[in-house]
């Protein structure tokens, strides 16, 4: 047993501060945090249905409809009927959506680089590797069997 604080106790204030730093960047680009999550999911993978997208970003499929409406109205995504199931919609990021996502990510990651620069290079690289590895764990891997 160690005297260190729990991971959640250490990470929660850090994550809150990182989110607070992102909010003005997102606002300047006219998108919400959910909008950014949608653009990221669509830019990082193939075309998705609204249901699959909601699952991928951890959102309730009925609650992201207004986010999708705003992104579509802004020309950042397109939604077309699925030819194999007309009730479903196929989502695609547009070139403009890709441009906005990359612009936002560049500003966010520049701030992250500023914060990470407080760590020695080896610690910084190790921290990023560790966070990447842990972020790929499933919820069940973290929570354990229920």
Automatic annotation (TrEMBL):
- What is the name of the protein in this document? DNA-binding MarR family transcriptional regulator
Task: Give the UniProt keywords, A-Z.
Answer: DNA-binding
Please name the GO terms that the record assigns under molecular function.
DNA binding
Cleavable signal peptide = none
The record's section on PROSITE patterns has: HTH_MARR_2
What Pfam families would the database entry show? Answer: MarR_2
User: What InterPro entries does this protein's entry cite?
Assistant: HTH_MarR-typ, MarR/SlyA-like, WH-like_DNA-bd_sf, WH_DNA-bd_sf
Q: What residues does the HTH marR-type domain cover? A: 4-136
């Amino acid at each position: 047993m160690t005297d260190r604080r729990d991971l959640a106790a250490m990470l929660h204030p850090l994550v809150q501060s990182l989110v607070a730093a992102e909010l003005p960047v997102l606002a300047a680009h006219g998108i919400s945090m959910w909008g950014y999550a949608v653009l990221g999911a669509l830019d990082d993978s193939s075309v998705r249905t609204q249901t699959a997208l909601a699952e991928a970003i951890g959102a309730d499929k009925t609650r992201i409809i207004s986010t999708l409406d705003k992104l579509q109205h802004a020309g950042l995504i397109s939604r077309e009927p699925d030819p194999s199931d007309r009730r479903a919609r196929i989502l695609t990021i547009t070139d403009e959506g890709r441009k906005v996502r990359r612009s936002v990510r560049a500003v966010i990651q520049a701030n992250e680089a500023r914060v990470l620069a407080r760590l020695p290079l080896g610690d910084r690289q190790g921290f990023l590797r560790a966070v990447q590895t842990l972020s790929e764990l499933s919820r069940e891997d973290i929570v354990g069997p229920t």
